Amino acid sequence: MYDKLLTVSDAAKMLGISASTLRRLEDNGKVKTYGLKVVYTPGGQRRYLADEIQRVFSQTSFAHKIGFGSKAAILVRDVTYAYMDSGSTLAIDTPFDKAGLHRLLTMAAQRGLPTMFTRTVYRPEHPFSWLWGKKYPFITTLTEDAYLNRIIDEALGDAPFERNHSTCYVSDFYGHDLAAWLKQQGIDTLILGGVTASGSIRATAIEAFQMGFHVMLPREVIGDRSQSLLDFTLLDLNARYADVLSLEEVSGWLATLPMAVSESTTRHRQPDALSE
To answer: Does residue 49 sit in helix, strand or coil?
Structure first.
């Protein structure tokens, strides 16, 4: 019945209280202090509606809208076979609108806005890459030439990416001059898409926000390994660091911008323009 439910632990973290306190506040299926309804699974586990937690955030001065700035860029992370192929160990388990992402990229390119693609690459000789592989061994499959590390051809293979970048870091901003390059282009808004919400997307969003960018997250083109993890992460990012919007809202804003090139024109890629 409800597709956005949070566990008692996740809900408590979002509210800044302990799980035991949240349980103690429950009274006849309600948490009256916060105006929350408690939903029970068939197994008797407590769940809370993400939309209601969002309402609490709004009422307590969280989750205000940043809004778009004057000029945006789109950055897409790890839409590769490793994360999009259901047979992969790293695959996400949430809906992801690849066609919608392609349309968004095309709209941006037609308006002369930078579009960038980043993929995670494991380099065993690199100190951080080795360390990340030690903590999260599945990352070691993402070598430079690995089949799993290819962009999804049928969905985004002809997408108008202006720049391609490989990184062994969690955040797209760490270890190279991406922020400086964006600011040189007059960019003040960063639209993020890709995977995973709780990993690279979160790290990049927070770092971009700290650098002064308006961070926009179209929810239909962000994925993670479970729906609850995705919902929790987007709820937290929307509360503190970014605007979580629908793909329609982001596309609608792009549609208000003037066309910079004809619809029949697309950009040529510049492979590895931002590579380390």
So the answer is: strand
